[in-house]
Each structure stands twice: as structure tokens, then as C-alpha cells.
Amino acid sequence: MLQKFGFTQYESQVYEAIMAQDEPLDATTIVGASNVPKAKIYEVLNRLIDKGIVLTTMDGKKKLYMAVDLQTVIHKIKLDFENDIEALKQYKIKRTFTDEHIWTLKDESSIASNIEQLLEEADSSILFLAWNESMERYRELLEKKERQGVYVEVLAVGGLESSLTRQYSLIPLLDAPEPSQLLIVDHMYLLFAGVEHESWKAIKTMSKPIVKAMTDYFYHDVALTQITKKYGEQLLQDEEMERLLTRLIY
Fold it and tell me: Where's the Transcription regulator TrmB N-terminal domain (predicted)?
């Protein structure tokens, strides 16, 4: 059973041999009880000591060994496994190539998971445009990334209460269309999502021309937000400007 958790066959045999006895054993006795070759016994014992499941002491000139009880070993294996899982979650594999493909996503939960993953992996910058209901879902994560030193800039349609340094809130002057989400991470990764026929759909890409174009789109909307905030009422009094505004997403 121990071999299923990363122990070698010899390690398992030695542990079982020591555990089966009520008293400490010396190396010679362990060789006979475990059927592990004498030439290997000290190497195996030292590994078990390093793993924390065998104890050792000196009795005069003789070195004795005793096994940690099985329930403690099980607890240790469980803790080590949980720690390894946490370490694996934090591990990042950086792409060494540029993927020019445009990938499609069609499920709302899958889109949300991809957005969360991209946010978690952001190293230098995050540009995020979304309706406030969607933005609120990631607010704490966005605030955490900013505290970690990542440049975060968001545009929330409908407003957002947060501690973010660079945030813009747009209250639409006209009837807003279906919600959408635009995320650009590290100037490399892009995800754009929208609602079509009452279902969320998205594209995800590293294509440089698309990332650049959508970055311009993001800042176009930031500029439009600030202009609308300052001059919205005046602009809507002009028929031509009102017609142009109705052709934009806001």
C-alpha cells in the first residue's frame, strides 16, 4: 500500500518489518525480517528517516530503529499531498511561443473560469471591461492583483464600488445592448465575450494584431466614458452627435 504513495518496494518492506515488532530493531535484525539485501539496508533506512516515518537512536554502540505508528504516517502523507497540490496550483508554465489561433468558448461557466485563470496568471497588466454584475464577480481578485503590483485598469458599465486605483464607471445614457466582457492580460492574452441569442460566447487568442486592436477598443471606450461623463447632456442635444452615439455600444 505504501508504494501507491511514492515509497519504494524496499522502503515498504523495511517499514513493515520494523512496524511489526514491539521493540526497536538493529539493522541486522531488520535485514532478516524484511528480506532487503544487507548492502541496501542502510540506504533504505536513511531514506525512511529523511521521510520522517522511521526513528533512530543509539544504544551503546548499536544503532536502533523504530517505526512511526501507521496513523501518524497516514496523516503525514495526507498533509504532504495537500501541500503538493497547493504548490502545483501556484506553479506557472510560461508559453514560449505565440499562438495566433482564435479559440472559441460557448459556456458561461467555462468563460468565467478562463477569465479567472487569466486574472490569476497576470504578471504585469490587466485591462478589463465588463458590465458591473460580471465585474463584481472578480472584484476581490482584481484588488488582490493590484496589491501584488500588477497594473490594473477596469471599465465597469453601470458602476463599481472597489478599492482599485484606475477604474472608470459608465452609466449608459441610452438603452444598453446585451452585456459583454473584454479582458487583456500582459498585452498578450485576450478574451472577448458577449451574449448571442441569450447564450454567452467568447473568443480567446494571443494574436498580436487582434490584441492590439482590442486594446485600442478598450481605451476608445475609456475615452468615451470620460467624454460622456463630462459632456453627455450637451452631446445628446445635437442630432448628429446623438445619431453617432446610438451607433456606439453605449
Answer: 2-70
Residue for grid cell 498585452:
187
Distance of alpha carbon 132 from alpha carbon 155, whole angstroms = 9
The grid coordinates listed for 245 are: 452615439
Report the C-alpha gap between 19 and 7 in whole angstroms: 15
| pLDDT mean across residues, the chain | 87
Strand blocks (E) in the chain: 25-26, 54-59, 62-67, 102-105, 125-131, 151-157, 166-170, 180-185, 189-196, 199-205
Decide: helix, strand or coil at residue 237.
coil
How do residues 26-35 score in pLDDT, each as one tens digit? 999 999 999 9
Which three cell numbers, joined as nine digits, stand for 154?
477596469
- Candidates 79, 91, 87, 89; CA nearest to 5 is 79
Per-residue pLDDT tens digits for 127-153: 999 988 888 999 999 999 999 999 999
Q: Cα–Cα distance between 169 and 114 in angstroms, integer? A: 24
d(CA 25, CA 230): 84
* Residue with the three cell numbers 480567446: 204
Contact 156, 236 (CB under 8 A): no
Closest CA to 5 of 91, 80, 90: 80
109: cell is 461557466
Question: 48, 2 in Cβ contact below 8 A?
Answer: no
How many of the other CB atoms lie within 10 Å of CB of 17?
A: 20
Checking if the pLDDT of 229 tops 80, the result is no
Q: What is the pLDDT of residues 96-111, one digit of tens each?
A: 556 788 999 888 889 9
Global pTM exceeds 0.70: no
- φ, ψ for residue 114, nearest 5 deg: -65, -40
